[in-house]
Design brief:
The complex is a heterodimer of chains A (about 120) and B (about 110). Chain A contains no helices and eleven strands. Chain A is mostly beta strands.
Chain lengths: ~120, ~110
């Protein structure tokens, strides 16, 4: 079974631009979560989608948005990029929204975004 | 105060020793607890999850949960150089939000 895939793997943008990242979950998984990872802040939760609905959102500004399609694929968008948005963006999928210790999230390889 | 706290390390142990990694969390209503391993340049991978107080063993790994004291730990027995990585503790709050600690870097010296 194929794992979580994320595209693109690397991205370089300039301040003020916008970017769209894509995540394809493991086949059959309907929950997708997004995280930002930086050396200073560690892994921070962005949002979680299940059945095309955003169920949870972390403490990020409105410039960060996302959506999920009927095939469970998800995209996240960052508008008006800032230097501080440079990070590794990780997507994780699970069968259903993770609630119990039996629910495992599988992470994709991430998209490394650099904002110049 | 962060929801999940970990000592950033690095924690250095000799090969064959027991590595002990600790994590504290702030919410007494936390439901589930996870340990992930992340190699440099790679994405996190799940090692163990624990839900109930006490110990849970899986091979060389043992997770320990103490809800009264609000800590969860991971013991790695017979540590190997291949165990050198950053270990992330994660907690589920409010039934569906994952909070991760900043990770502890473990170095296992041959």
């Amino acid at each position: 079974k194929a794992g979580v895939t994320q595209t693109p793997r690397y991205l370089i943008k300039t301040r003020g631009q916008q970017v769209t990242l894509s995540c394809s979950p493991i086949s059959g998984h309907r929950s997708v979560s997004w995280y930002q990872q930086t050396p200073g802040q560690g892994l921070q939760f962005l949002f979680e989608y299940f059945s095309e609905t955003q169920r949870n959102k972390g403490n990020f500004p409105g410039r960060f948005s996302g959506r999920q399609f009927s095939n469970s694929r998800s995209e996240m968008n960052v508008s008006t990029l800032e230097l501080g948005d440079s990070a590794l963006y990780l997507c994780a999928s699970s069968l259903v929204p993770p609630q119990r210790s039996t629910d495992t999230q599988y992470f994709g390889p991430g998209t490394r975004l650099t904002v110049l | 105060q962060k929801e999940v706290e970990q000592n950033s390390g690095p924690l250095s142990v000799p090969e064959g020793a027991i590595a002990s990694l600790n994590c504290t969390y702030s919410d007494r209503v936390s439901q589930s607890f996870f340990w992930y391993r992340q190699y440099s340049g790679k994405s996190p991978e799940l090692i163990m999850s624990i839900y109930s107080n006490g110990d849970k063993e899986d091979g060389r790994f043992t997770a320990q949960l103490n809800k009264a004291s609000q800590y969860v730990s991971l013991l790695i027995r017979d540590s190997q150089p291949s165990d050198s990585a950053t270990y992330l503790c994660a907690v589920i709050y409010n039934f569906n939000k994952f909070y991760f600690g900043s990770g502890t870097k473990l170095n296992v010296k041959p």
